[in-house]
Amino acid sequence: MNAESNLLEASIEDIQSWLEADEITSVELVDFYLARISAYDQEGPSLNAIQHLNQNARSQAQALDNERKRSGPRSLLHGIPVLIKDNYETLDAPTTAGSATIKDHWPKRDSTQVARLKSAGAIILGKTTMHEFAYGWTTRGSLFGETRNPYDPTRHPGGSSGGTGAAVAANFAVAGMGSDTCGSIRVPSAHNNLVGLRGTRGLSSRYGIIPQVSSRDIGGPLARSTRDLAAMLDATVGYDANDPQTAESYGKIPESYLRNLRETKLHSLRIGVLSDWFGDQPQHQAVNAVIKNVIQNLEAKGANVKPLTSARLKQLWTETRSPSAFFLDGYEFKRDISAYLQQFPSLPVNSFSEIAKSGQLEPLVAKGFSTFLDPKFDSEFTALKTHEQGKLVRTQLLSLLHDHNVDFLVYPTATEEAAPVGTEQSHFNCMLSAASGLPAISVPAGFGESKMPVAIELLAEPWAEQKLLNLAFTIEKLVPSRQLPQHTP
């Protein structure tokens, strides 16, 4: 087969069918993606999305090819190369969270979700760049510098899973894994024209993922299509004894998201549009127009669309963007990262304080961490109050769904297109899902005036992942937006 013309943008199901028909091998797949990484990651547009490569990927692919011939594929992911964010522990490559402070960290074990991918037959091709210790929305770190967006290398790819976002968008692998504390799956999905889901709290195991805010952390896939996302979820979700939070998933996960994936019947759909979550400044208008076009298309096909705004919703918008909403970033990270590092006494840093005072951090990360040294971030009372505020956000969102009889709440994932490399931005609607623990999915919606990807976010009740996937799948069909980045042809 002509790998170059067929493999670009190819789905997991397509590739698996070619593997089964002996039209390509997993070794050839690995070679194809490694060649693209060689051509575009440090050369060409210099995306700088790959942190570490698995030096055993080719031999593992050969073993999986041999196994396929002997006994057939283990699953739909058998022999499929994927990429993993550098905060997931992996046996095949170091786990450094993008930080020079732990540049030699290699626990030589797999996180639960990585182990499940490997059990399904996936090949871990390598580790992707991330915003240092996941503390940011752009993807910069002391160990690797800045990552660039394949749609425009002068712009950033979102964060903190920006390396995964850029790499999957550029076809460096079939799909990838990220983590989301407040938007870190959904923001890079939005800025790289991908589909990304933040599941209900407890959907997927956090075991073996370097923590940021453990009460809000969740790992999950980023993919070029909803079907690929569903296939990755099928392999990674569910109960893990090493993460008690996943016990909440008991009885809540279908046998297969992929097999249950189908288009939503729009004539019975009820959508609540969170009007206050749209930007109201001139720089927001192009993104607003793209999102409203999707909503209008849904409405034209029979969906019942209801704009929602009120004084209380305006107040909720303010509350979820206030510094107090992010208090746990300091309080929990100080404790969680220290507890994690203390498992590895040979590391040069063994506490948050040592990291913050190391002098090695990326400048803005260093500035943020220095503020966390303030004793106010040791207040258990404030932490408990913040958790209570999160429960209130959850109640308010569920009340909205009930009171207005709507199936989904929708709003822009990000109210602006990706900003230039080296600049900061905070135009993300990430906290509704993060604080409430409710699931939300970011879906490509089109392109803005700067020709950068724009995404719509859908939020629903707990354990509504299948419903979210189905509507995302419907939007893909209704408003096709996925395009190959021109800088990585």
Please, could you describe this protein's structure?
- With 489 residues, the chain is α/β, with parallel strands linked by helices.
- It has a single domain (3-273, 300-478), classed as Amidase signature (AS) domain (Amidase signature (AS) enzymes, Alpha-Beta Complex).
- It is 36% helix and 13% strand.
- The chain is built from 16 helices and 13 strands.
- The strands form 2 sheets. It has an 11-stranded mixed β-sheet, sandwiched between helices. It has a two-stranded antiparallel ribbon with strand order 4-5.
Key phrases:
489 residues, alpha/beta, Amidase signature (AS) enzymes, eleven-stranded mixed sheet, two-stranded antiparallel ribbon, 13 strands, 36% helix
Tell me the layout of helices and strands.
Layout: H1 3-7, H2 12-20, H3 26-40, E1 50-53, H4 57-71, E2 81-85, H5 112-119, E3 123-128, E4 140-141, E5 145-146, H6 162-169, E6 175-180, H7 186-191, E7 195-198, E8 218-223, H8 226-236, E9 270-274, H9 285-300, E10 304-308, H10 311-321, H11 327-341, H12 352-356, H13 363-372, H14 380-403, E11 408-412, H15 431-436, E12 440-447, E13 453-459, H16 465-478
Parallel strand pairs: 2-3, 2-6, 9-10, 9-11
Antiparallel strand pairs: 1-3, 4-5, 6-8, 7-8, 7-12, 11-13, 12-13
Helix content: 25-40%
Which class do the helix and strand fractions yield? alpha/beta
Identify the CATH class. Alpha Beta
Gap from first CA to last CA: 18 Å
- Side-by-side strand order of the widest sheet: 1-3-2-6-8-7-12-13-11-9-10
* CATH fold-level label: Amidase signature (AS) enzymes
Uncertain segments are: none
The main β sheet shows up as: 11 strands, mixed
Q: What is the chain-wise order of helices and strands?
A: HHHEHEHEEEHEHEEHEHEHHHHHEHEEH
CATH architecture group name: Alpha-Beta Complex
Query: What multimeric state do the chains show?
Result: single chain
Mean pLDDT: 96
Task: Tell me how many strands there are.
Answer: 13
**Proportion in β-strands:** 5-15%
